[in-house]
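JOB MANIFEST
job_type = single_chain_structure
chain_count = 1
residues = 383
[input]
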Amino acid sequence: MKINSVKLKDKQMKRLISSSLSILIAVVFIQGSIVSVHGQQQETTGEWKLEKKGSSLNFSFKIEDNDGFINQNTFKASDFVGLKTGNKITFSLTGPAGKMVFKGDVSANQGMGTYVFTADNSFVKIAKENGFDNIKIEGLMLALFQQTPKSYFVDLKKLGYSGIGSKLIAFIALGITPKYIMAIKDAGYPDLSAGQMVTFKALNISPDYVTKIRKWVGEDLSSSEIIQYAALGVDDNYAREMNQTGLVLSPQELLRFKAQKIDPGYIASMRKLGFEDLNPSKIAQLKGLNITPEVVTKIRKMGFRNAGVNEIVKFRAMNLTEEFVSEMNKAGYPDLTIHQLIQCKAMNINSAIIREAKDFYEGNLPEFSKLIHFAAMKRTPGK
């Protein structure tokens, strides 16, 4: 059975690959349920809807007095007893956590009706004995859907995860089994908090993933770094390919490259332009300014055929354009260097300022240093 009630969101990192990546795990389940207690029996009622997709049965559930069908779970027909097509039928789903009895109508492709869920007292008792008090009815329903065994709580306590509060629903929904916990501990992370364990599982971090990433990045990756790698989709293939470029990348630089979508192809294309000795910081700077081979070629065609990487970066960073270069050329300065163009841009020099400078110098086009001096005077009133 597959639970569709877990969504993963990446919180935006304050800086490109900085301190840590916060992962928001939203277990979209029923909130504020209405529970009736008959002696020691926990019971709730609600409505269900069914949509058949191939061999999968997609159920939506609504607890009484809650708005909307907000919890979706996928089952197989064999999970139920008595499920068939027809009107006013009764069928059931049973597991260690309790029993759910369905009544309603089922056609070839859909169905709807009401249900009654009754929790199993011994399941609740074992949970409480192992530090899992006050499990809400929705948690018990989820445990039924997942066929969570009673031993689950005993095992979690042994592994150091008793009394984890609301994280229990996430543990059950994500299928965090004792076997998974032990495997992660053996992989080198023996002391993860319940929240970190939830994040690991939500990001599909497996011992195999940890082993492969460490092979290329190093053995001493922290749990937060592993989370960042998984959240950004850094896998062993990407790490290997970047290693084969000849660059020596730190763990944080590899993360930054992935976040900026820098791949071996981009690095190779920059090197073909003559930028052979690029370090990771410069590559990240080029990519951050969206400097592509096309951009470099265009700048060089403006007359800067020998422009190096630092000049290209400055050209782009100052937002120099082909139109601005052409304007300077037509105004009488066809041979300005990139550095001089940057000076003009910074001083807000354009063709109009050049005409004023020419008038100031009695109709003569001033040399570049005098043009800069004139522009500076205009920016400083009284001089």
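[summary]
Residues 289-383 form one domain.
The beta strands are 2-3, 6-10, 23-27, 36-38, 41-53, 56-63, 71-75, 86-95, 98-106, 110-119.
exit_status = 0
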